[in-house]
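Good day; I would like, with your permission, to put a structural problem before you. A protein sequence and the structure tokens that stand for its backbone fold form the material at issue. The record follows directly beneath this note:
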Amino acid sequence: MKNDIIGVERAIKNIRELSKSDNRSEEIKEYASHPHEIVRREAAKYADDKDLKLFAFDISAKVRGEAARRGYNPRIMSKDPSPGVRVNVVYAINYNNTIEVYRDIINALTTDPSAKVRTAIADIGYNLDIFVNDKSPRVRASVARQGFYLDELINDQNWLVRKNVAYSGYGLDILVKDRNPYVRAAVANMGYGLDILVNDRNDVVVEAVIEQGYKLENFLNIMDDIVREKAYKIYSFVQFKNRMLYNNIEEGA
């Protein structure tokens, strides 16, 4: 077992060394048949574009995913059975600025059965008018992160979506009273409504208020050990910063 691990480490080190060479192609592609997935995946990262086909049909989805990430034939890779591979197709198309060339693929994947794939498309800002009504809250949350359809998504039944609406800075005066503590914490993290949320009874919200440095003295004697410790740390840091600022002013006077 130990020798096996050492062999893998050596192979990976060799691949990385070869990647710096002008004549890397022939030697790196030999690793396409290596028995260990992690080695083949590493080789796929550095293989020449013309050799990616050797990795695109690997038994491992992680190896195929690396070939997809590198941009190997999106039309083939978009039909891969692994959602992770299809996600990498989306990101590769976006990264390589070839969306107009492969718009048909993006549109086809818009109805992909995997929420991960649909979220990837929403993440790059496409077909948001469709995704705003997606059945998956992860996908709708991505739409909110893009800052679109916030007037609709603020009323979404799923807290994850409303949380992302808050992080977009929309409707904070409404979301400060949201029933879900993670949404209220997001509002606090935006620095809004701290005078209200400072009295919140949920630890998640209280910690978010503390992280904003708001009325830290209120929390120094709180019963909850974790919350009190966080308050002390931030309070001490604020005090330290104030002392440093004061000393700098004194020295410059």
